[in-house]
Design brief:
The protein has about 140 residues and is mostly helical. It has one domain: Hemerythrin-like (Four Helix Bundle (Hemerythrin (Met), subunit A), Up-down Bundle). Helices cover about 70% and strands about 0% of the residues. It has four helices and no strands. α1 runs antiparallel to α2 and α3 runs antiparallel to α4. It is elongated, with a radius of gyration of 16 Å. The N and C termini lie far apart (about 40 Å). Bound molecules: fe (ii) ion. Fe (ii) ion binds next to α3 and α4.
Length: about 140
């Protein structure tokens, strides 16, 4: 079964170039995972890309948290919880991938696509709108 690739659309833009660029990069890595499945890559190769994605995600999420702190975003705690849930889930996938009972690769890709799309459109859009509303000049 082949996975449909998600390409970047302006619908996913939160109106902040630096953050949008990070999100584009993350979606590109998800597409690399889709390629890996289609090319019949090994679990180890998939796990390697997923680890790269985790590294990039951790940097991005941390930077985003500092950014939100700078303009005193009122829903920061809630937003951080969403990040923690993601980090935990992906760490579990990474561990399970190399174990005896590996998860389905398509399931992982679907989780990533769904999480990022939903998170960008709801959570990230919200802090950026708040930042605009209070006319903060915080730079990401
Ligand atoms: Fe976020």
């Amino acid at each position: 079964m082949s996975e449909k690739k998600r390409i970047w659309t302006n619908e996913l833009s939160i109106g902040n170039t630096g953050i949008d660029n990070d999100h584009k990069k993350l979606i590109e890595i998800i597409n690399n995972l889709v390629d890996m499945i289609e090319l019949g890559g090994s679990r180890e190769e998939f796990a390697k890309i997923l680890t790269d994605m985790t590294d990039y995600s951790l940097k991005h999420l941390k930077k985003e948290e500092i950014y939100m702190e700078e303009f005193d975003y009122p829903k920061l705690t809630e937003h951080k919880i969403s990040h923690r849930e993601y980090i935990f889930k992906v760490a579990m996938y990474n561990v399970d991938l190399l174990g005896n009972n590996p998860p389905n690769l398509n399931e992982i890709v679907q989780y990533l696509e769904k999480w990022w799309t939903n998170h960008i459109l709801i959570y990230d859009m919200d802090y950026e709108n708040y930042k605009k509303a209070i006319k903060s000049d915080t730079i990401y």
